[in-house]
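The aim of this short unit is practical: by the end, you should be able to scan a pair of folded records and say something sensible about each. We start with the first protein, listed as its amino acid sequence and then its structure tokens.
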Amino acid sequence: MRGAQFAELAAFVAVADRGNFSRAAAILGLSTSTLSQTIRSLEARLGVRLFNRTTRSVALTEAGERFLGQVHPALDELGRAIESISASRDTAAGVLRLSVASLAVGLVIDPILPRFRAAYPEVTLDIIVDDSLGDIVDGKFDAGIRIGTRIERDMIAVRVSSDSRLIAVASPAYLAAHPRPETPQELALHNCIRFRKTTGAVDPWSFENGGEKIEVEVEGTLITNNLDLVVRAALDGVGIGYMLETYMDAHIAEGRLVPLLTSWSLPYAGYHIFYPSRHQMPAKLKAFIDFLRLDARRGAPEKPTAPMDNAAAHGVIRLRA
């Protein structure tokens, strides 16, 4: 339906409801002569007279009555649809679809989940754990969470965790029974707990020392795609684990896990939530981002991982190559 045709139908319903051209024109913000011409154009296009008009009264014809019975419900339904979509602009409600990297679930999602659910009970979080670099727009996601260096250049990104590093760890009990590795190559002598990404890949362990980077193809008797199981297995002395330091902070601080090869630890960029545009952001997404930013401020100071545009002053960065 063209805009002019919609305007004609709205004008017809307004005149029929009020039985008066002047009152209908005032409601529509038109002059009476313009409204009269609009109705004449509609009647000419339909080839029927819709109103019988005199200088004192306006009444629907038989054809006009039938037409009103069909048009009025349709316009009412359209009006309700417009009101509904307008309300959703300001109300955090509905399904929020997120594509989240494995490590980000424990670091970013878990800390805010209970509070977010309590604050916004009408928002349903549909979280897909995905370590691929798929297109969130093509996947019909509202947003994604990845490390800052793996986000497309045309996305808006907001930092939601501090930078960290990848380290190897083991329990005191494991180290009491096995020699402590002094170089990454010595991991070949140990039982290593390996993590399988959602893509199916089991990556080698990467290390860096003074600009020298190496990858080690480790071996071990446990491979899992569950990060918590990696940590539990390391705590239980099964072998050496390899993960983000921030994911194991509490265990390291309390001595349950011992960092290994710390001079070889690999820097790891912080996580960002990213989405296609700031234009008319859904309220449900804005509420979620606000929760993530508040939680990030409780941690280490934010460090931008890419050049920032003017939006950076508000905590939003656009990543560039």
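Turning to the second protein, read its sequence before its tokens, just as you did above.
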Amino acid sequence: MKRVIYSLYIDIPDDELDYQPPFMWDNISKTNRTKELFKKHYHKLLEVKKQYSKNINVDFKMYEWDDQYKKYYKFFKEKYPEITTYNIVNFYKIHLLYELAKEYDEILYLDFDVVPVTKESFFDVWDLTKGICVLNNNNSVNKKNKKVHEIKNHSVRSPTAKYFNTQAMLIETGHSPVNDVINTGIIGINKEHLNQLNYFKNFREVLDLMSKLRDDKSYDLFPKNIVDIFGYDNETLFSYKLKTNNVNVQWLDNKWHNFYDLEYYIPKDTKLLHVINKRFEYVWRFYEKCDL
């Protein structure tokens, strides 16, 4: 059984960053601040992943802005010009799953802002023959419980946007609208389920569907305030593919995907810490106490 952990860091050029509302503790675009903090904490973020891989005795691979990414970026820009650089990066991380599956049986993907704080092996705890391991953000959809036509001030990256976008895609293609908001910051998967997911099959047709739902002025299944937050998100497509291809899923719990965002408290039993709020200074203090 060959296993691997991998991560991805692409330093998107300033002029290709899209604006996102600031973190709650900040006053500049979230994308600009993330870029700055990834540079500042780069070596530590890389080292903790290498150390975890070493501790559990699996291979580790790091992907960055190299010739392989440049080739993928060029291909995407030429074939799918409507896709932003941010979304290209996120489709690239899914593409890498398929590349690694040529050599490995089981794969664990960690976003660059994920910090392992355990020596326990993910692969020993989660049986990947039972389904893909991901977190769902269902509890973040329309948290204020507003009527659909009253939902406002959500970005295209919000769980609410992804939920309704996936729902529209499913309805448009004759499927049940029931779906889950997938977070791809941590993905555990094996070859069988990766092939069943078939993420890039009919990719052009799926992107055209997403464009139609967003741009067709005659489309009236959802009100304009909802359609305006539709996009080309990798997690929207991931959710759509899970449902249309009937792929088994195992939901990661708060230990194995701790969504470190609004609260700065980190439970002692945390295994994989996803630093959504980018407050790495708190995380490193916790990490040192773990004695890894």
